[in-house]
User: Which sequence fits this backbone?
């Protein structure tokens, strides 16, 4: 960040009494220019440091919010809660986008106590994300800057292609040689829509070890019969077929990429791959294993490219400002 303060240093070290001009209009112009560049500098630094501050909210305000958000429910003074708030603030500074907001909700606020009790929020901190596609979900991974930024990038991203196949018939499934992860869903189902991206991303990362198939149960009579045969009573339902189809295992875990990946690893070794969207647990630990994991920001994090571009722009502004001031004699040529 020291580069961002070069301009500020120049502005403060200029002595207006040393401006080599007798023209009042020219002197006024230089002063206006300095004020303008100061305002530009402050704006750019605000952008560089993150423009999405953490806001203190009431439980009821967060509960009724439709904005995409990361929310930390905490107890002031408790070590874990304080560390979570510090991490949340670091995330807000690193996240250069307004698609998500960042809230903290205190359990010690009298206006929140009843809501905390009704929600059975006892062990703080409790961390949730709220997104258009994912809805309100607990954040299950280690709460570090890199993990959260990766998750937010996943929620914002779109998957253009995947390795999920559409159910054809039961005979097609019986002919397959690899284990099958089968998703039963309906188009109208909100939970199914939230699962879709996680299922797609998983298929892209481990397609060499498993087949991913989805079946819309109400599509036609054949799909209806097959869903009935598999005792599908709710949506989405996930079933894992291995060693034949006599006794498939119904998946009962969480419906996130990480949860499903952990499940598949228990059944068959998943080769180490570079995930298309979300780093797996091992990679997360590697990413955040530096000396300060709470503020680690990976090079692929949202805004890192913008930050590099901003540095280049600041250098160009510095050079232009220096040229302008020299032209007006505000600083000597040997400075």
Assistant:
């Amino acid at each position: 960040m020291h580069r961002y303060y070069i301009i500020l240093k120049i502005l403060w070290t200029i002595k207006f009494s040393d401006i080599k001009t007798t023209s009042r209009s020219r002197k006024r112009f230089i002063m206006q220019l300095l004020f303008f560049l100061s305002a530009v500098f402050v704006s750019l630094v605000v952008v560089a440091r993150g423009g999405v501050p953490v806001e203190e909210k009431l439980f009821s305000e967060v509960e009724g919010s439709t904005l995409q958000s990361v929310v930390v429910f905490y107890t002031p003074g408790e070590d874990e809660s304080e560390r979570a708030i510090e991490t949340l603030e670091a995330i807000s500074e690193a996240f250069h986008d307004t698609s998500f907001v960042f809230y903290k909700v205190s359990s010690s606020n009298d206006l929140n106590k009843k809501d905390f009790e009704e929600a059975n929020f006892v062990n703080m901190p409790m961390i949730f994300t709220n997104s258009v596609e994912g809805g309100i979900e607990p954040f299950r991974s280690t709460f570090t800057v890199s993990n959260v930024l990766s998750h937010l990038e996943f929620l914002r991203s779109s998957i253009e292609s995947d390795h999920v196949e559409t159910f054809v018939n039961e005979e097609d499934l019986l002919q397959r040689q690899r284990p099958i992860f089968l998703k039963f869903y309906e188009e109208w189902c909100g939970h199914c829509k939230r699962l879709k991206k996680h299922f797609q991303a998983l298929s892209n990362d481990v397609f060499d070890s498993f087949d991913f198939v989805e079946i819309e149960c109400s599509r036609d009579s054949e799909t209806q019969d097959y869903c009935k045969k598999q005792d599908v009573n709710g949506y989405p339902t996930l079933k894992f077929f291995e060693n034949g189809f006599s006794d498939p295992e119904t998946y009962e875990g969480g419906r996130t990429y990480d949860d499903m990946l952990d499940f598949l690893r228990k059944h068959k070794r998943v080769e180490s791959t570079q995930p298309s969207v979300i780093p797996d647990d091992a990679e997360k630990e590697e990413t955040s294993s530096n000396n300060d994991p709470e503020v680690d920001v990976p090079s692929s994090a949202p805004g890192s490219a913008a930050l590099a571009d901003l540095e280049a722009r600041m250098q160009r502004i510095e050079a232009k400002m220096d040229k302008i001031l020299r032209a007006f004699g505000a600083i000597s040529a040997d400075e």
About this structure: The mean pLDDT is 76. The longest helix spans residues 24-48. Strands lie at 54-56, 69-74, 101-106, 126-131, 135-138, 164-166, 180-185, 211-216, 237-241, 249-250. The two ends are 22 Å apart (CA to CA).
